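Severity: low
Component: inverse-folding endpoint
Summary: output formatting inconsistent between runs
Steps to reproduce: submit the following structure tokens with default settings.
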């Protein structure tokens, strides 16, 4: 695991890569040896993988990654199809999410608006990364949205 010296002139990409490596590899426990390093193949912004999807006429229950994941960017765009707010729910879950699961994050997206989440330090999900798109706010909502209403983009490692 790399030591991150915040006083040096690291590029943003290198800083993000070091943070992601720390999150993926874990932090050493006092008295133990360092974790086995994992080399991440990243883009120029430090992110390994990208997910993009346009909603179908369902709740769009999707597993993006079924193993631990670090999320560095989420954007959700409401295309304006339909006149109501829509909700994108993010889960720390390695299997397909359902209305009986509790999201870790619920994003409200107003018509013709975009929600952008860029955390200062990537969000670490120890089980996996999944999401649902619904017509109502309640965690247990199972109301489908329309086809093409939402577009989602996620940068993750």
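Observed output (run 2 of 3):
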């Amino acid at each position: 695991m790399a030591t991150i010296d915040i006083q040096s002139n690291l590029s943003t990409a290198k800083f993000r890569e070091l943070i992601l490596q720390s999150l993926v590899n874990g932090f050493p426990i006092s008295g133990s040896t360092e974790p086995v390093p994992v080399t991440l193949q990243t883009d120029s912004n430090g992110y390994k993988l990208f997910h993009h999807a346009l909603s179908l006429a369902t709740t769009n229950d999707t597993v993006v990654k079924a193993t631990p994941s670090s999320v560095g960017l989420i954007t959700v765009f409401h295309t304006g199809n339909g006149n109501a707010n829509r909700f994108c729910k993010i889960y720390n879950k390695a299997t397909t999410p359902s209305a009986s699961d509790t999201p870790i994050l619920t994003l409200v997206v107003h018509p013709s608006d975009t929600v952008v989440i860029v955390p200062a330090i990537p969000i670490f999900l120890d089980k996996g990364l999944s999401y649902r798109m619904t017509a109502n706010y309640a965690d247990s909502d199972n109301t489908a949205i329309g086809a093409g209403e939402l577009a989602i983009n996620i940068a993750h490692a």
